[in-house]
User: Fold this.
Amino acid sequence: MVDFETLEFKNIPFGKNNFIEIARKKAVLGNGGQTEFISISRGYFTNDDNKRYKNSVTLPLDDEVRKEIAKNILEI
Assistant:
């Protein structure tokens, strides 16, 4: 079994009720192991202001990979 913990997150609202959430998360494995990663999710708010998620991608915490992704996002 794997449990996920959100360590930190930021929401970027756009459109009528949409958001992109960038989060640092930790996967805690049943054997005591753990892995941290970055999650980028797209979602929306329901009529009662609950979050619903549509899509997600995870990224490693590797600084070089994150810098390369940020650089390419700014260049596109």
Observations:
- The chain has one domain: 2-75.
- Residues 2-75 form a domain with the Transcriptional Co-activator pc4; Chain A fold (CATH 2.30.31).
- The chain is about 15% helix and 60% strand.
- The helical segments are 63-75.
